[in-house]
Write a structure and sequence with these properties.
Blueprint lengths: L8 E5 L6 H11 L3 E3 L9 H6 L1 H25 L7 E3 L6 H8 L2 H14 L8 E6 L2 H11 L9 H17 L5 E5 L9 H12 L5 E4 L4
Parallel strand pairs: 1-3, 1-4, 2-3, 4-5, 5-6
Helix pairs in contact: 3-4, 3-5
């Protein structure tokens, strides 16, 4: 199925373990688009952050902030929108992590830098928010066994999941499709993926739901 032409820039979001990178990749492949992906493995502070959150929160956060700013800047200055672009991050969500991990003085510094950079980010044509229960996230993170996630705590995943829920409860900057991904496998189940494409193509409102209870 071909997605409508109005969707040139689609963002897939969700907490760690929700499946956003996998979905961005398969959407780009199936729709002959471009995948714009975070690169957590190149953040030299990330593994240290999971071992010692207090000490490494600020450098880890600022590394990601500049990485994301660079990626969206290149996006707006290139001809990438000749193809559909599927990103596994949304720049406007970046402060969510900062608010969870930084102390007051660090957060003020972060907010000043973020305010200077955020104007570069284009507004997505659609945001797909992948929801999952905390136990699902914990199981998925353990299963993929990324070295930089080895010391991530279950408590952090739970708090992060709650922060995402609050963020997207208020989100109205772009059309939003909320997907319950607990029992969906877009990579290994072609039927699930085809249903998602149909749901995207059929969207009419600014906030819709797909998955359990939809």
């Amino acid at each position: 199925m071909k997605l409508p032409d109005k969707y040139r820039y689609i963002v897939i979001e969700g907490p760690i373990g929700a499946g956003k990178t996998s979905l961005a990749r398969i959407l780009a492949e199936r729709c002959s688009g471009t995948a714009l992906l975070e690169e957590p493995e190149v953040n030299p502070f990330l593994a240290k952050f999971y071992r010692d959150t207090r000490r490494y929160a600020l450098p880890a956060q600022l590394f990601f902030l500049f990485q994301r700013a660079h990626q969206v800047r290149d996006l707006t200055q290139s001809d990438m929108f000749r193809q559909m672009v599927f990103a596994d991050f949304m720049f406007e969500k970046d402060p969510l992590f900062a608010q969870l991990t930084l102390d007051d003085d660090e957060l003020k510094l972060y907010q000043q830098i973020y305010a200077h950079l955020k104007w570069q980010a284009p507004v997505p044509d659609l945001v797909i928010y992948l929801q999952a229960a905390p136990e699902t996230l914990v199981e998925r993170v353990a299963r993929r066994a990324a070295s930089y996630e080895r010391d991530i705590s279950e408590d952090y995943l739970v708090r992060l999941n709650e922060a995402y829920t609050r963020f997207f409860h208020q989100f109205d900057a772009a059309p939003l499709l909320i997907v319950n991904s607990d029992n969906l496998n877009f990579v290994d189940s072609p039927g699930d993926f085809d249903l998602l494409l149909q749901r995207i193509a059929a969207m009419r409102g600014s906030r819709e739901f797909f998955g359990a209870g939809a």
